[in-house]
């Protein structure tokens, strides 16, 4: 499974930003505080449906925002693509897989594989 792209709206430090990824690999370089960790958190969010750093989803909204949305496209091992859309507004989270509303957030863990590793 490989990530093709991710679009963030009102997610942490990003008002609206789309990132495309090279299937051979990517390197994130930037100054402290420019959003590298926020991007990685958004990718992880599409796998587990919750923050890897915060307890509440409303903490993921950009400053002054009243919602956030994350949409990622992946190429699966069988060559098919899958779109994962997660949004949060008015205290409610919504998940769509390939545009179809899915009420089981737990299904993400078995579908989108993200490996988290840290040091320190």
Could you characterize the architecture of this molecule?
A hairpin with a 2-residue loop joins strand 4 (81-89) and strand 5 (92-97). The radius of gyration is 14 Å and the shape is globular. Strands 2-1-3-4-5-6 form a six-stranded antiparallel β-sheet, with helices on one face. The chain has 120 residues and is an alpha+beta fold. It has a single domain (2-111), classed as Rossmann fold. It has helices at residues 36-48, 107-111, and strands spanning 2-11, 14-20, 67-75, 81-89, 92-97, 100-101.
- The sequence of SSEs as H and E is EEHEEEEH
pLDDT < 50 runs, ≥5 residues? none
How far apart, in Å, are the first and last alpha carbons?
A: 28 Å
CATH level 1 class label: Alpha Beta
**Whole-number total of structural domains:** 1
Q: Find the count of extended strands (DSSP E, 2+ residues).
A: 6
Mean pLDDT: 91
The CATH topology annotation reads as Rossmann fold
The spatial strand order of the largest sheet comes to 2-1-3-4-5-6
Please bin the fraction of helical residues. Answer: 10-25%
Q: Which structural class do the helices and strands define?
A: alpha+beta
What percentage of amino acids are in beta strands?
Answer: 35-45%
Largest sheet: 6 strands, antiparallel
Instruction: Name the CATH superfamily assignment.
Output: P-loop containing nucleotide triphosphate hydrolases
Global outline: globular
């Amino acid at each position: 499974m490989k990530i093709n792209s991710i679009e963030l709206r009102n997610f942490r430090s990003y008002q609206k930003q789309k990132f495309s990824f090279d299937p051979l690999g990517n390197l994130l370089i930037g100054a402290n505080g420019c959003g590298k960790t926020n991007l990685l958190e958004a990718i992880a969010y599409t796998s587990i449906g919750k923050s890897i750093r915060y307890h509440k989803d409303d903490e993921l909204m950009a400053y002054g925002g009243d919602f956030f949305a994350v949409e990622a496209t992946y190429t699966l091992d069988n060559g098919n693509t899958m779109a994962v859309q997660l949004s949060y507004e008015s205290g409610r989270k919504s998940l769509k897989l390939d545009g179809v509303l899915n009420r089981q957030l737990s299904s993400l863990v078995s579908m989108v594989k993200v490996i988290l590793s840290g040091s320190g």
